[in-house]
Amino acid sequence: MGLKAGDVKYIIDRIDAVMEENREYLTELDSAIGDADHGINMSKGFRAVSRKIKDIAVEDIGVILKTVGITLVSTVGGASGPLYGTAFIRAGAEVSGKSEIDINDFAAMLTGAEAGIKMRGRADLGDKTMIDAIEPALDAIKGGIDKGLSCDEILRLAAKSAQDGVEGTKNIQARKGRASYLGERSIGHQDPGATSSYLIFKTIYESVIELENRY
Amino acid sequence: MISMLIVSHSKKIAEGTKEMARQMVSGKVKIEAIGGMEDGRMGTDASQIALAIQKLFSDDGVLVFYDLGSSMMSSEMAIESLPEIMREKVLLVHAPLVEGAVIAAVEISIGKGLHKIKSELEKMKPDKSSW
């Protein structure tokens, strides 16, 4: 893979665009079982992130990711602010000082990010949260590295596993967040947080393919 | 004297709770309210919460109250971001927001200690019949 600071910034810009494109969709999912703000919050947050990272001229990917996290914490507003914020800050800490990252770094970043989300949100697999997309994706990445698969294939499988995880959230009851107040009525609805996590994995996969074709 | 910070997703809830708690102590206890985002959306911003705590801070400490959604996580992040010397005197109180804040204001005004107020409030099950 071998992503440099500029590539990471490009992927983050793409995530901003994808959140904007999916603003209504995420809000619609959230209006069924939550407070109908996930789409607007994510797009506000990543729009602020995009503006912020444009101004930072550093090669250290750890610093870029930390900046993303801090910006999300103060601009998203809803619970996804501290959660995604913590995730990016932790991911950044894993690659502090690095100006280029590979798939092994990505696995380490994601391991840190997931631990951070679980700590901050006190959530686990099966609670109908973003963890239900992130954990299967992380497992796919670790499994793919062990099997020696290509980076593209690993990222494709990660996105696919996250998507399957999102599908799975339809069948379970929410145990965290605003949706948990609905009890059994949350069953049958797809989790908005897991959906935005899947969109991020999908965007990372597509952007990496795009970057490879460009070089 | 101990001061208090009210954190809510909603600016109106934060302001209203502050007003209600202040009424009980004739403005003697320092109370601040943080709620909503700069652009008017509901939500919480950990950096704003951290700033508010720093402004309220004295050696007697700060009690932080919160309600739903991101307000607990943002408050936790704000407290974690404080200098260590402040951190141990800023306590997040896991109690119902309105009742907790009103009772805490009274307890502070009669001179109870920081940890004592927190532990008593966390045992509290608000008696809704006593109005």
Q: Count the DSSP helices of chain A.
A: 9
Do you know the CATH architecture of chain A? Alpha Horseshoe
Q: How many β-strand runs of chain B?
A: 4
Task: Give the neighbour order of strands across the main sheet of chain B.
Answer: 2-1-3-4
The 3D shape of chain A can be described as: globular
Share of residues in strands of chain A:
under 5%
Q: Hey, which two chains have the biggest interface? A: A-B, 23 and 18 residues
Task: Tell me roughly what share of residues is in helical segments of chain A.
Answer: over 70%
Strand composition percent of chain B = 15-25%
Keyphrases for this structure?
heterodimer; A: 215 residues; mainly alpha; Serine Threonine Protein Phosphatase 5, Tetratricopeptide repeat; two-stranded antiparallel ribbon; globular; B: 131 residues; alpha/beta
State the gist of this model.
With 215 residues, chain A is mostly helical. Chain A has helices at 5-21, 23-33, 38-54, 61-75, 80-94, 103-121, 131-147, 151-169, 192-214; strands spanning 3-4, 100-101. Chain A contains nine helices and two strands; from the N terminus they run βαααααβαααα.
